[in-house]
Amino acid sequence: MPAKPTLPVEALSLNIDSYVACTKCAREVSDIEPKISLQDYAAIDVGFTNWGLQVWCRRHQVNIVHLDFGGQQLPADFRRLEKT
Ligand SMILES: [Zn+2]
Predict the structure, then answer these.
(1) Domain enclosing residue 59, as ranges
(2) What is the DSSP string of 39-74?
(3) What pTM did the predictor assign?
């Protein structure tokens, strides 16, 4: 049974303050013409692992970050806001 949401509904909108990016992609995208955003260039997989949550660059086949939950089960909100 899903846990009761702990975040306010406003948290379900885009609230990213600091993007996670592959340094290789960031380096390459600056040389691409016509210009393309890093968001459009990046090919990222995000998912849960035995340790926590991993962000993986599919383009370069490298780890970007792997968050270690330290064995803790953190609250997570999987509700989705539909744009009307
Ligand atoms: Zn990359």
Answers:
(1) 43-71
(2) HHH--EEEEE-SSEEEEEETTTTEEEEEEE-TT---
(3) 0.85
